[in-house]
Specification:
mainly alpha; 11 helices; 81% helix; 0% strand
């Protein structure tokens, strides 16, 4: 009975620690959500600015009864998630760090920071460059006899999907470096499969972007270039060590 109690103590302490980290993360998110919701009208204007710029003198429409409220809730949740992401990642790091070796801790911290910055960079790339190009293209192909009335809820779903797609795309260098560091694949193999990666990038872009060639290229080309950047950094970081081990 005492052995069972001794075995349960570490598990219970881990569960209590996990609950504490989750509660802290949720409390900070709720505070961030409340602040973001207070400025949701201003945040809405900023979020729809790329589309509003190609619709001079025209506002986005909202059809659903509760849509004006739900749209602002989604915007506040999105902003709160991004704003509290560093704190959330710190809580995750603080929970798993005691179980890691010293060399693993040295690797995880830079990867977490780099992953966060690259994800935000991907969102910024979509907002400042891709949105403007795509919306100008769509506005240019609208027939003169047609009135284009974008819906706020549909626009928000589109924007969040693009943020996730480009944010994940910008994580490719991290994935490449981690795979090489863990020994799952070599730099030579990554260079060998380059042609397959390029084809795969255009296939993925065709699935996750709007059905036009321009949007597909705006995602596929950065995906390919980021892959090349990951291979270049991985070869610079780990190839000398591999050569040393082979020569010894």
């Amino acid at each position: 009975m005492s052995d069972l109690s001794d075995n349960l103590q570490p598990l219970i302490s881990h569960l209590i620690e996990l609950r504490t980290r989750v509660v802290r993360g949720m409390l900070v998110f709720i505070v961030g959500f409340a602040i973001a919701f207070a400025f949701s009208a201003q945040l809405y204007d900023v979020l729809v600015a790329p589309l509003s710029s190609v619709l001079p003198g025209q506002k986005l429409v909202t059809i659903g009864i509760a849509s004006p409220f739900l749209v602002q809730v989604k915007i506040a949740a999105l902003v709160a998630f991004v704003a509290t992401l560093p704190h959330t990642l710190y809580q995750i790091w603080a929970f798993v760090a005691p179980g890691l070796y010293a060399h693993e801790k040295k690797l995880v911290a830079p990867l977490v920071i780099a992953s966060t910055l690259l994800f935000l960079l991907g969102m910024g790339f979509a907002y400042f460059l891709v949105f403007g190009v795509v919306f100008k293209f769509i506005a240019s192909v609208v027939p003169a006899s047609m009135q284009w009335l974008p819906d706020s809820g549909e626009y928000l779903d589109f924007a969040m999907g693009m943020f996730v797609a480009f944010g994940v795309t910008f994580e490719v260098p991290i994935a490449v470096i981690v795979m090489v560091r863990m020994g799952f694949v070599t730099v030579a193999k990554l260079r060998e499969i380059r042609s397959y990666v390029i084809v795969g990038a255009f296939v993925i872009a065709a699935v996750v972007t709007p059905p036009d060639v321009l949007s597909q290229c705006l995602l596929a080309i950065p995906l390919w270039l980021l892959y090349e950047a990951g291979v270049l950094v991985a070869s610079w970081l780990y190839q000398p060590k591999l050569n040393e081990s082979q020569s010894s």
